[in-house]
Amino acid sequence: MTMKPLTILTGINRTSEPSSGSLILVNDLYRAMPDTHTIYLGRRPVDQEWKAAFGHLISLSTTKRPQGPGFDAYVDELTQEVGALIEQLRPDAIHAQKVGFALSVAFCRTAGTIPIVSIAHGPEVMAAERNATEHAAMLEVAAASAAIVTPTPVLADHIDRLTGRRFTDRIAVIPWGIRLADTQVRDQHSAGAGPLALVHAGRLDDNKSTITAIEALALTDQPHRLTVIGKGPLREHLEQRATDLGLRDRVHFEGHLPRAELWRRLPSFDAFVFTTRGLEAFGLVLIEAQAHGLPVAYSNLPGVRETLGNTGVPYTPNDPYSLAAALNEMGRDFLWRKALTKAALHNARRYDITVTSRRLRKLTLRVTRSAQ
Description:
Blueprint: E1 6-16, H1 21-31, E2 36-46, H2 50-53, E3 56-59, H3 71-89, E4 93-97, H4 102-110, E5 116-119, H5 123-130, H6 132-144, E6 147-150, H7 153-162, E7 171-173, E8 197-201, H8 210-217, E9 225-229, H9 235-244, E10 251-254, H10 259-265, E11 271-274, H11 284-291, E12 296-299, H12 304-308, E13 313-315, H13 320-332, H14 334-348, H15 353-371
Parallel strand pairs: 1-2, 1-4, 2-3, 4-5, 5-6, 6-7, 8-9, 8-11, 9-10, 11-12, 12-13
Helix pairs in contact: 1-15, 3-4, 4-6, 5-6, 8-13, 11-14
């Protein structure tokens, strides 16, 4: 007898397009999840790619408002909208993305007996650490959740600490992944010691600390070149800093690239530079780089260290001198870079999105059956 597919309600309260790591992950995650019908709540416009990943798409109509005087009223309105949808859809389970953001709060206030699996992405954890309102929201969602999923033990510990260690037994670590079947590896074009073609991809904000890579370039003993891919509030500042350091002919800025284009470009570089200086949920872009054969120089953060282990080159976070030393060593030793490429490819194979999806579905089935 054919089993009825598991129906999951989820969503991220943003435009339904692959514009960030969280959105890309969710798109991959449910597309790869077997025997599941996923209903996704998002915002217009809806990217065509989203239509292939989810069984049903619903655009939220409540006007989105940021933290401030009108935020509580906004959450109340969103809760009313979500509650009406839950009453109509009656899913088997709810996946509340981003523990403590507005949509996850609306889910927990309206789920009733439907079990909730909340999924941490990182930004909401950082918000809860610095903001009392966000902290209270995280506590509310955690209390309403049958399980709380995080991609690393480090993020799990942050959430456990923020929630007063009251829900430790609900926290499950499920590493994230990428669509490994879509990756390609080409021979690196640099065939010996010498200047490297480096790439950095990510949001250009303070926590991503792209400036560390730019300042490190001024300290290296070879004229390495850096391509910065991404957008964010610090773009002009970073360009000015590159100019001030006399690096404008060695630092090239590009805007955000769709993932397919980023993946097409990655194998043309010699190495990837990861510069985040604070909390990093997982560092999915690191696995993307490794899966395309790139050695990685990474800021030695808890969580990132767990994801990469000894398959990359660590340096002290926010320290351009430390990064410059790592790049100097990579530039001098081509055989070592080849060994790093082999290690990178081996490590990336541990993070297939199909494994993530199967584990999350298994957890969801367990909490659903417990609720019944």
